[in-house]
């Protein structure tokens, strides 16, 4: 069971309620809420005042279909004015059904097309390595169904073989994948050389520990298990 003590988390349901309509994709959005909060509240080195600072961590939302929780967390952390949430997806709003990196402070990629985020994250990690920026983390959030895309298999294999230890993939496992994988999601990454941890996707302390414990020169995958998507 999750024990919630972080200030600000309790306000997220209210922020989410400001966004209405079919575009909200509530199941897709709410499955990511706790992971996003723990990352932005306790893990990521990011801030509204330094959204382009070279030393910042990079967070990439590959699971960009249904970004309501992402917008709520960005508003809670000062990247967005909460007044923008009520008009999201309208013609006048910069908050679209998929996040747009050119319009929203702190958003690193325009996402929503399945299978793009993890390969981009691998490229970002290589880019940081080339610049000798060894401290920033690259964290990408993907959905379990998204792993059906072949581009992810190539990214998983390359990251493991190149020991991209600045890279963390977070997989939201809400039982949405079509076929699944022998041994489970974590095993798919482990066989390619990743460190893997599977935790309750609603347990903030377990998530924090999974993100912050050392993983000895390997990329890390955190499989966050949530209730099945209905």
- CATH fold-type name of the domain at 26-64 and 105-225: Rossmann fold
Secondary-structure-based class equals: alpha/beta
> Which term fits the overall shape?
globular
Q: Any idea what the radius of gyration is?
A: 16 Å
> What is the count of helical runs?
8
Largest sheet: 5 strands, parallel
- Estimate the helix proportion, in percent: 25-40%
**CATH first level of the domain at 26-64 and 105-225:** Alpha Beta
Attribute tags:
8 helices; five-stranded parallel sheet; 230 residues; Rossmann fold; alpha/beta
Helix and strand topology:
Elements: H1 12-17, H2 26-30, H3 33-43, E1 58-61, H4 68-76, H5 117-130, E2 138-143, H6 150-161, E3 167-173, H7 185-190, E4 195-200, H8 204-212, E5 220-225
Parallel strand pairs: 1-2, 2-3, 3-5, 4-5
Helix pairs in contact: 3-4, 3-8
Description:
The structure is a single chain. The two termini are 21 Å apart. The protein is α/β, with parallel strands linked by helices and 230 residues long. Helix 3 runs parallel beside helix 4 (68-76) and helix 3 packs across helix 8 (204-212). Residues 1-5 have low confidence and may be disordered. Helix content is 31%, strand content 13%. It has 8 helices and 5 strands. It has a domain at 26-64 and 105-225: Rossmann fold. A 5-stranded parallel β-sheet has the order 1-2-3-5-4, with helices on both faces.
